[in-house]
Amino acid sequence: MLYIVPTPIGNLEDITLRALRILREEAEVVLAEDTRTSSVLFQKYDIHTPLRAFHAHNEHAVMPGIVQQLQQGVKMALISDAGTPSISDPGFLLVRACVQQGIEVQCLPGPTAFVPALVASGLPCDRFHFEGFLPHKKGRQTRLKYLATLSETFVLYESPHRLQRCMKELMAVCGPERSACIARELSKVHETLYRGTLEELSARLQGDAHMAKGEIVVVVTGK
Ligand code: SAM
Q1: Are residues 56 and 40 in the same domain?
Q2: What total number of domains does the chain contain?
Q3: Which atom of ligand 1 is nearest to the CA of 87?
Q4: I need a labelling partner for 192 at 20 to 30 A (CA). Which of 64, 172, 206, 218 fits?
Q5: How far apart are CA 166 and CA 144, in angstroms?
Q6: Which of 107, 141, 156 delimits the end of a domain?
Q7: Where does a domain end: 89, 107, 125?
Q8: Cα(21)–Cα(4) distance, rounded to whole angstroms?
Q9: What pTM was computed for the model?
Q10: What are 191-200's contacts with CB under 8 Å, separation 24+?
């Protein structure tokens, strides 16, 4: 059994009772993206299950051994630094391997950054497209041009130091009038949502350095 366990994206209270029980009592090993980051959560909730590193740089190397242990009946949980594993985080390759090998996978519902950003943006969310991170270089323009054609709201993850560039690029492909929202530091002390047109948000960003600090989700209304 492999449990996929979402963990808080900021506020450590955002964890379910089931997630705590599985991390504390059910799983024999917890695969974690960064064991030091996860040990903060483990200390707060008095969890003593052994942590093992599973991240983008070792997933190919360690996966066969993990799959073998799962086949032998070892119960494991996978967590990432924040939010839901596999959502712009490692996890997909392991889940796919487990599904192919007939190993049961259960993903718990829980925190992820794009849902509160999308819902609080006030932009239509009956249908939406999740883009995650844009490629930094190759393929970036292709994705941006594609996003501009979508009729539904789309959601991007962006790093703070690329935010200004990203807003300018979005304005170039979508036009200045599209409504958008920059959601930063969700569930944390400095959570802020900035809403406006791409042009307004871009102009505001230039005069307000705080807007591009911390972790950021960008939500843009459809065409
Ligand atoms: N697995 C995570 C999830 O379920 O949302 C995403 C991990 S991805 C490596 C990290 C990105 O998620 C950040 O760069 C940011 O775009 C977004 N993010 C994570 N936590 C956030 C927060 N508290 N506020 C705003 N955005 C956040």
Answers
A1: yes
A2: 2
A3: 1
A4: 172
A5: 9
A6: 107
A7: 107
A8: 13
A9: 0.97
A10: 191/10, 193/117, 193/120, 193/121, 195/121, 195/122, 198/167, 198/170, 198/171, 198/174, 199/171
Q: Which residues line ligand 1 (CB under 6 A)?
A: 9-10, 80, 82-84, 87-89, 112-114, 157-159, 183-188, 215-217
Query: What number does the ligand 1 atom closest to the CA of 158 have?
Result: 16
96 and 130 inside one domain: no
- Domain range for 19 is 2-107
CA 134 vs CA 11, 101, 223: distances in Å: 26, 32, 19
Same-domain status, 68 and 87: yes
| Cα→Cα distances 76→19, 49, 50, 54, Å | 13, 10, 10, 12
Interacting residues of 189 by C-beta distance below 8 A, sequence separation 6+: none
Rounded Cα distance, 148 and 184, in Å: 22
In terms of domains, do 189 and 156 share one? yes
pLDDT recorded at residue 209: 83
Give me 112's structure tokens: 């992820």
Q: Which regions of the chain does DSSP assign to beta strands (E)?
A: 2-4, 29-32, 51-53, 76-79, 105-107, 128-133, 153-158, 179-184, 192-197, 216-220
